[in-house]
């Protein structure tokens, strides 16, 4: 499939999706979200790929849902097409890890897309925000829910109710992003992390992701029980004996990665 609003690049075991609507600050219109969904499904189904990177330009990861496409919609339109959910949730369904590499603006749906990824590496130029209140609506792709889990109620209320932007340093201090790096190093650092993840045992990586996500959905006791069960299940894969034998023999493990 050829894409017009994103670029898809496969570098060894890493799939890189670059949001690419430069004239619209990578605003997320239907075409882009359809193409993003298709690219994510392609990478999820590709045995060679062990980790996915989503990035934008140096100016914008994405400045939100496309306001020009949204402006004339009626309640009937958004209800009938299940607007924001129908083609917006693929990133949160993918079982392989996804890193968001964010430079410039990640606003509204852009911030929400970054939060659907497993973690965010931000350039020192990054700016996050949920400014929907300034255009008469509220976040519609998880901004009130995921942001609150990331940074807590007080700060999430501040962001959602005032619509202000948060810079990279504040996003790091608040726990929204995992790391902040100089803008020039963003892709290299994110690619390094993605390559590292892709080099580990694939089932262990996928199960680790599923387990951390469980922490958001259940009680501590249930989560601990889930973790123990899936920890045990990893002993059913050859990668466990290979990984441990390699440690003891002081060599690099040869994981099957499939
Ligand atoms: N939708 C459509 N077009 C957008 C856009 C968006 N979200 N964000 C920027 N653009 C377009 C602008 O209209 C402009 O296009 P024209 O040249 O044709 O006028 C172009 O991108 C460049 O933008 P600016 O001239 O505004 O650039 P700037 O540097 O002055 O400001 C910005 C950059 C701060 C990101 C500003 O564009 C902005 O505030 N954008 C809107 C942010 C926003 O409100 N996002 C939330 C959208 S709603 C949403 O996302 C709902 C949800 O929860 C899913």
From TrEMBL:
CDD domains: crotonase-like (cd06558). Signal peptide: none annotated. InterPro entries: ClpP/crotonase-like_dom_sf (IPR029045), Enoyl-CoA_hyd/isom_CS (IPR018376), Enoyl-CoA_hydra/iso (IPR001753), Enoyl-CoA_hydra_C (IPR014748). It holds the Pfam family ECH_1. GO terms for biological process: fatty acid beta-oxidation. Its EC number is 4.2.1.17. Gene3D superfamilies: 2-enoyl-CoA Hydratase, Chain A, domain 1, Lyase 2-enoyl-coa Hydratase, Chain A, domain 2. It catalyses: a 4-saturated-(3S)-3-hydroxyacyl-CoA = a (3E)-enoyl-CoA + H2O; a (3S)-3-hydroxyacyl-CoA = a (2E)-enoyl-CoA + H2O. It is an enzyme of class 4 (lyase). It comes from the Bacteria. One of its GO terms (molecular function) is enoyl-CoA hydratase activity. Coiled coil: none annotated. Keywords: Fatty acid metabolism, Lipid metabolism, Lyase. Belongs to the enoyl-CoA hydratase/isomerase family. NCBIfam families: PRK05862.1. Could possibly oxidize fatty acids using specific components. This is enoyl-CoA hydratase. It comes from Iodidimonas nitroreducens.
